[in-house]
Amino acid sequence: MTRILDPTQIQTSLASLPEWKLERGELVRTLTFNDFLQAMKFVNHVAGLAEKAGHHPDIDIRYNKVRLALVTHDAGGITQNDISMAHEIAKKSYEMLLQD
After folding, report:
1. Boundaries of every domain in the chain
2. d(CA 90, CA 94)
3. Mind listing the pLDDT tens digit for each residue in 50-66?
4. β-sheet bridge partners, residue 29
5. Phi, psi (5° rounding) for residue 61?
6. Residue 30: beta bridge partners?
7. Assigned architecture for domain 7-99
8. What is the residue-wise DSSP string for 27-63?
9. I need a labelling partner for 6 at 20 to 30 A (CA). Which of 14, 26, 60, 70 fits?
10. What is the Cα–Cα distance from 51 to 67, expressed in whole angstroms?
């Protein structure tokens, strides 16, 4: 089983993920895009990353806003898998937002 990170490890990891925050035991980020189609393009890319990693975020789409939440449910908390996935998502979101 994957080991849960302690609060200090989570806070240290968040220092390299400035757009992410800890919210009710999950790593959370909300992104705003120009429109629904761009938001969906981003979500589809995240889906590909998640499937490849075998680690799937909770995703909430509200028109041009996408809320992502990461937690390793079977471990019962935040693990290194969540941190790694957040970094992968952060890279793609930065690339997409630069394109605008």
Report:
1. 7-99
2. 6
3. 999 888 999 999 999 99
4. 68
5. -115, 125
6. 67
7. 2-Layer Sandwich (3.30)
8. EEEEEE-SSHHHHHHHHHHHHHHHHHHT---EEEEET
9. 60
10. 18
